[in-house]
Structures are given as structure tokens and as C-alpha cells.
Design the sequence.
């Protein structure tokens, strides 16, 4: 199958892995599933057999045409030749209150962009099973104190519970990439209400705190425009060590910090 390197195409060829990915979504008999980057359809065929409705979003026009031909006789499958970064998922809903499931082998070069795009639309998602470069999955699932813990970890974990599922070697794909790939599941469970914070204020604070990951929190916040005395006072009120770095703090501590900064 011809490959377009600029699209980051590495096609899954391991049939067992395709089945495991679909299994990780759970019961699909009453679900609408959105597949990102179906490529040659290795996962698509299994989804089509299980989902009530499947929407496969493929950027490559040639691959989309092939998929349209292959699934022409399957009315529950819709092929969209579209850029997922520009797709409004809400436009795919047919029933009020419906939640979508998402699955995909994400192109390595835009993985973070796709993840953030999905989080922007988290209110209409219930679950996502995604395959990404192993190092990205490590960052998504990292916990405080781990060297991989950072802005991506905290942002994703504010929206979803993360379960790393399994890792695939390069020879599970054609052509083989230069990296290992990990499949993980996001179960949407936003924590904003629980932590009494607003996304449009809290996520920017996380960006400020992790602006330079190895710097102390007080220095990052000073660089973001806060007065040093204000930051030190807020850290004290929050019960955070004034010498702490962002990579050491759980989400609960960031929420306390935001409350303290807002009340100073």
C-alpha cells in the first residue's frame, strides 16, 4: 500500500492488535464510534462488525476513496475525507445527549494536537482508545515526581482517567516506524467541578507552571507576571514547598494554588 511520509502513515498489520484495540472500547452495539486515520482499514473492519454506527475520518483522499469502495455495502459505516483537527465532532451527533467513542492510530507528528482537540470536545465523548508513540503514552499517564510528568500529563488527566493497555514493536506496522507504539484508553471523567476550578483559567495556569519544567514553581510564575511576594504567599496558603517544581505536584495542589492566587 503506497505511503505518504508527510502524513505519518505507518499501517497496522498485526491482526491480533487490531482486535485488542477494538475490545478495549467495550460493547459497541449501541454506540457511535469515530475512527481517526483508518488508513487501510485494519481496525475499521472490526469496528464495522460491532458498532451501531461507525464514522471513519481519513485525510488521505486515495485511502478515503478505497474505504468508501470497501464499505459501500455497509450502511452503518460512513467515510469522511477530512482533517480531524478541523472536524467538529458535535456535527456527527444524531441523538440529543449522545456520547461518541473515539479510536485511532494517531500520526506521530500531530499526536498532541489531536489529543488536545479531543479534550476540547470532551463533553461529547465517553471513551477513547488511542495508539501513540510509547514516549507520548508515558507522558500522558505519568504521575507526580515521574520525569515524564508535565503539562500533557496534567492537562489530559484533568479530563480523563488513563489506562495504558499494551505496547507494539515496530514490526507490527508497515512500514515499521523507528519507535514503539503504545495503546492507551481515556475514560472521560473531567475533574474541574470536583476541584472547583474552571478550565479556561486552570489550564492556562498549568501552562504557566510548566513553562520551564526544571525551574522552581515560583520562578515560572514570576516569569508569567506574578509578583514574587504574591507567589510565595499563595504557595504558603496552598501548603506547597516554596522550592517546589511543578513536576512534583498533584492536580489537587495546583487547584489549591489557583484558589490562593485568586484570593490574594
Sequence:
Amino acid at each position: 500500500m503506497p505511503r505518504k511520509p508527510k502524513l505519518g502513515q505507518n499501517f497496522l498489520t498485526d491482526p491480533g492488535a487490531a482486535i485488542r484495540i477494538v475490545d478495549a472500547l467495550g460493547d459497541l452495539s449501541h454506540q457511535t464510534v469515530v475512527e481517526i486515520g483508518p488508513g487501510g482499514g485494519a481496525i475499521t473492519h472490526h469496528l464495522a462488525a460491532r458498532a451501531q454506527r461507525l464514522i471513519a475520518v481519513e485525510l488521505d483522499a486515495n485511502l478515503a476513496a478505497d474505504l468508501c469502495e470497501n464499505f459501500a455495502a455497509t450502511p452503518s459505516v460512513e467515510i469522511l475525507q477530512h482533517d480531524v483537527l478541523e472536524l467538529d465532532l458535535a456535527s456527527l451527533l444524531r441523538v440529543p445527549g449522545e456520547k461518541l467513542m473515539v479510536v485511532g492510530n494517531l500520526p506521530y507528528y500531530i499526536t498532541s494536537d489531536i489529543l488536545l482537540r479531543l479534550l476540547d470536545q470532551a463533553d461529547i465523548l465517553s471513551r477513547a482508545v488511542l495508539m501513540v508513540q510509547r514516549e507520548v503514552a508515558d507522558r500522558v499517564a505519568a504521575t507526580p515526581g515521574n520525569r515524564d510528568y508535565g503539562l500533557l500529563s496534567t492537562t489530559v488527566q484533568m479530563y480523563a482517567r488513563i489506562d495504558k493497555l499494551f505496547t507494539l514493536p515496530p514490526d507490527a506496522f508497515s512500514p515499521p516506524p523507528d519507535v514503539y507504539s503504545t495503546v492507551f484508553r481515556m475514560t472521560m471523567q473531567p475533574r474541574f467541578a470536583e476541584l472547583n476550578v474552571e478550565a479556561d483559567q486552570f489550564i492556562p495556569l498549568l501552562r504557566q507552571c510548566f513553562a520551564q519544567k526544571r525551574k522552581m514553581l515560583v520562578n515560572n510564575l514570576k516569569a508569567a507576571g506574578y509578583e514574587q511576594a504574591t507567589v510565595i504567599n499563595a504557595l504558603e496558603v496552598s501548603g506547597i514547598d516554596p522550592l517546589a517544581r511543578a513536576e512534583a505536584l498533584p492536580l489537587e495542589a495546583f487547584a489549591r494554588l489557583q484558589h490562593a492566587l485568586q484570593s490574594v
